[in-house]
User: Fold this.
Amino acid sequence: MSTENGSGETSTQTSYGKGGGEKGEVLLEMRGLKIEGMADDVWHEIVHGVDVTLHRGEVLGLIGESGAGKSTIGIASMGYAKPGCRISDGTIMFDGMDLRKTPEHQLRKLRGARIAYVAQSAAASFNPAHKLIDQYCEMPVQHGVKPRSEAEQEAKDIYARLRLPDPDNIGFRYPHQVSGGQLQRAMTAMAMSCRPDLIVFDEPTTALDVTTQIEVLAAIKDIVEQFNTAAIYITHDLAVVAQMADKIMVLKLGDMIEEGFARQMIEEPKEEYTKALVAVRTFRKDEDIPKEESPILKVENVTASYGGGVMVLKNVSMEIHKQKTVAVVGESGSGKSTLARAITGLLPPLEGTVTYHGEVWPNALKQRNKDQLRRLQMIYQLPDTALNPRQRIRDILGRPVEFYVGKKGKEKTQRVRELLDMIELDPDQFINRYPGELSGGQKQRICIARALAAEPELIICDEPTSALDQLVAEEILKLLDRLQKELHLSYMFITHDLATVRAIADEIIVMLLGEIVEQGAKDDVLNPPHHKYTDLLLSSVPEMDPDWLDNLLAERAARKAKGEAIMESMDN
Amino acid sequence: MGKILKMIAQRLGLGLITLLVVSLIIFLGVELLPGDLAEAILGQAATEETVAAFRRELKLDLPAHERYFDWLFGIMQGDMGKSLANQRQISELIGTRLGNTLFLAMVAAIISVPLAVTLGVLAALYRNSFYDKCVNVVTLTSISFPEFFVAYILILFLAVKAGIFPSISNVSPDTDLWDRVYRVALPALTLTLVVIAHMMRMTRAAIINLLASPYIEMANLKGMPRSRIIVKHALPNAWAPIINVIVINLAYLVVGVVVVEVVFVYPGLGQLLVDSVSKRDIPVVQAASMIFAATYILLNLTADILSILTNPRLLHPK
Assistant:
């Protein structure tokens, strides 16, 4: 099908960036930006008049929790509103053009060519039907910036600059043939293809493992500096944005809370909300309970596979003691969730045993009796999918109360109300609600209550906080800690987030490719000497210090130069 | 590549098993027909000896399972038996008819498939526009009328009033290609009108379904024109459901033509089937049913394989 002929039109515009323009010249200015979203057939304002000014070559970090409107504002800089949203007021001036008055076909010529976008999930945002390099070349060719052969050469060059393995050939792969971290870099490369003046990065590393995240952050930072591209960097992680941005803007529910230079915002935040964001992850549980002699759960030499011969767990042994939290950490694919499935019997181990209070439990879930099921409960990563949207909270909590404890009628309702009190939700207000009427944090509290309804001794928490905003996540951690003290619970806490581990763990298990590489008490594992993988994992966790990334990369380079063996991310 | 060949072999094997089951059902179905075949054919006046002789001749005196296997092994060797009506070999009787039916189906497919996909893509591109609504109304109207009605309307306007096409599609083995195309024009057009709505609407729906995907939003933010987004970004990922509907309709073009063939007196398999049923020519009915079943299974198999092949994950493994 024919496409609009871009070349004639674009020649009238100013040059395509080419790193042109000095820092200091204003590139993007949004004034009084208001955006509305459609819900229940009514327009609701979701961004209430925000001002954004961005100079050439400058990186602005937009930070806030979900619902803050940061992505919406970021995309609005392209004159674009997601389906179901509209820009209702304000001006968007980009390099002298008012994007709100520019007709749609002109905007299309601008998008990609002068303002590019890097999406949160590269895996979903690359078209599965086309090769990476075809998707790279599409923009320059369609916008008439350069011919295909030239674009292809440049793609290889940029792939190399972004330190993608085998840059000459990686472009000829399909998206599913490349790992997540590599895809995210390929997407950054694609955004660079027309040498835009501005790139909008929409949470580009949120879906990645810490060790992979670092590679992508370094690559993005590098390339943005090399081409002197201005960028809007959207994230919910203040530590990440501190590494990337010159300036930071804090948003909350569609309002600007505070704006300033990155270092100043981290070191001396003015607003309460910003202070809370900076101080997040400072929660530490106090450890005073002595460890009991015999463990409540003992896993010995467990090996498991999802069929097909590849062992996802190899000879794993671990113990969990009363009122202790064992944190299992590792990257995606390390087998940590599989370990939980093996213990619960959802995926019966091929070899090895699960012993509970000295009694060997059947491997398969189906063969376990009700009391065994009751003692071991689970909390999942995504409370949205873990709760039946058609059941009221009363039924969601009432069913396990009846099933495991045998309470009925008034007794059951009484118990459900107690459970709601325990998780700090007002029973009168919440007992008759549906999950859809709750926020993410409240849903996760309901999941916790559902696990408690069985009156268990051990709860396996599979990344219960990783889908939540940081402030909410911290509240959940505090709740779990309080419940542990009150009910003498033990937790097996699966996470990829080391800040969470620092907060709540008593013992740590580090997993890699289905094997335990290190395990022990928290302080032993967190303090040197480390296994080299633990070292990689620990050093990759972003810190608030704006110089952290630069220092770390310099240090790793120096160690490499000295010929020290350091472990590279699995992604390369 | 080996994985794909293995998959195709597996599907073919499954298809054969299905066909075997279908053969059993056809045989049992005929077997369960009330009344006695020999008496029905020879009439009430026949003497017992003639009936018995007739039964022996047709091997009707043997137990059912023996007759079934006899018939099945015959078919496997290409021998479908003899027609009761005129004692000719069924394979010979069916051969030219099957060719005619496939020819008509092919002409109808060549017109309808590209047309349906194009209309569907355009409807997705200009969705909710006047054009979109028009196409929907017209195609839905044509699918809502019974086939014979559509056929007669076409005959009335295009054959009787305008005189462009012949109203009777009589072809013989020595009719040349262009003359054939000319003669089957009206039945092919009727079939096109009958199948197009389905394919068009599925194309439209499959594409629109994908428009909410992140990679379509990405294409928008890359500044690609709408037409390119639909054709290059949505369509390649929408093939699987579209192919399935296309193939079901192709199968219908082969096995569902009975009425159309009768209306246009076209010497195809459908007409033969109708004739044979009224003449109680059981072996021909069985053979035609088997051919229809095989067509259906084979085409659905093709759809399965094609829609799997459009998935780049399978075609380009890690």
Chain B touches chain A at residues 212-215, 217-225, 227-228, 230-233, 236-237, 312-313, 316, 318 (CB under 8 Å). The two ends of chain B are 12 Å apart (CA to CA). Chain B has a mean pLDDT of 87.
